[in-house]
Amino acid sequence: MHPIVRAAYPADRTAVAQARRFVRETLIGWGADDAIDDAVLLTSELATNAVIHARTPFEVVCRAACASVQIEVVDGDATHVLPAPGAGDDPDRVSGRGLLMPVMLAAEWGVSYAAGTKTVWFRLRTRAVPPPSETPAYALPRIPGVEHSLVRRPRDETYDGGLYDVFEAAPDRWRFALGGACGTGPEAAAVTGLARHGLRLLAAEGHGVADVVTRLNHAVVREGVHGRLMTLVHGELVRRRDAGVRVTLVSAGHPAPLRLSSSGEVTSVTAVQLSLGAVRDTRFEEHTVDLDPGDALLCVTEGSADGVVQGNGDTEPGPGAGTRADGLARLLAGRTDLSAETAAEHLSYAGDLAVLLLRVL
Predict the structure, then answer these.
(1) Per-residue pLDDT at 19
(2) Can you give the residue ranges of the PPM-type phosphatase domain (predicted)?
């Protein structure tokens, strides 16, 4: 697996310069110096299009392969109308030339649409060869006053449609998401990509947690093939005035997150609702929990919570002997020093494993 990094921006002209800087710094870190100039120029053009024509928040995604880098600009315009240069366009203009720039400079480029989003991407050849990454697909940002870690252990090299993300939705408001599409292959990847871009764009537009999940459900129903479901836990963290953090979250078909108190008590913090894609008109409800200093929130992917490994190596059965959350809660009760890595060590799993832990400092 090769590096993938992303950043979200508001629909503001000043964000174009930030996007250029993000791409430049990313490619410098990858050693892809020979692709920097063209990548920055193309990113500037596509980001400007997103701000001026789409007029929505946008996201920039950088992907590295062995001999190329791919840059994607995702916005909220799905009208299938692309900006085009006017007659007699000045070739010395620095922007406003529609998609002429990727046509002239990129080795490959394209446009794809999903419900409510448009992605314009381009690929540039490079002599750089980034090493395989052992880290999560996304570099987790720093959240003031909250320590957080993500552990992902794939079953194999086959992409399974997993979603893992932590990002700043607005000043002092942080979002997290964990989940995945059922199945494997391109169809699962398409559903996960739709959810990932949708989460960030809807959050940037100011939609609440429950509204984001409800809108994503509509999109998955519209875009997914029959029977394609997705589990998701999505939440927002906001610092409380006194101390600690208030978490607002929704669990859509995903095992309920667990609150681990500083005293070792383990409790489930939300009810599990329908998976995304199950019923179009589902209205998801959000739940709120306050975390005090020393408390932690633990989220575990669907596949890994079916059974938990006991101290003697036996595996406790899943739904047939009580809820999966109950089994995990019993296993972790009394642990006050838990990390995502140590939690993962106690779990048995048949598929992809992902554990996200957020602890209030």
Answers:
(1) 93
(2) 146-360
Q: How much of the chain exceeds pLDDT 70, in percent?
A: 70
Tell me, rounded to whole angstroms, the distance of Cα 287 from its chain centroid: 21
**Which pLDDT value is given to residue 245?**
96
Full residue range of the structural domain in which residue 312 is found: 146-360
Same domain, 120 and 210: no
136 belongs to a structural domain: no
Q: Helix or strand or coil: residue 28?
A: helix
Helical (H) or strand (E) element with 29: helix 14-30
**Number of domains the chain contains:** 2
**What H or E segment, with its residue span, contains residue 38?**
helix 36-49
- Write b or e for each residue in 201-222: b if 16 or more Cβ atoms lie within 10 A of its Cβ, otherwise e: bbbbeebebbbbbbbbbbbbbe
Angle between helices 36-49 and 14-30 (to 10 degrees): 150
Q: Cα(83)–Cα(80) distance, rounded to whole angstroms?
A: 10
pLDDT, tens only, 144-162:
889 888 877 766 555 456 7
Ramachandran quadrant class, 193 (left: phi over 0; alpha: psi -120 to 50; beta: rest): alpha
| pTM for this entry | 0.62
**Which of these, 185, 160, 186, lies nearest to 303 by C-alpha position?**
160
- Express each pLDDT in 272-284 by its tens digit: 899 998 888 999 9
Residue 253 shares a structural domain with residue 283? yes
- Determine, yes or no, domain membership for 133: no
Write the CATH number for 102. 3.30.565.10
Whether residue 43 contacts residue 60, with contact meaning beta carbons closer than 8 Å, is answered with yes
Instruction: Let me know if residue 137 belongs to a domain.
Output: no
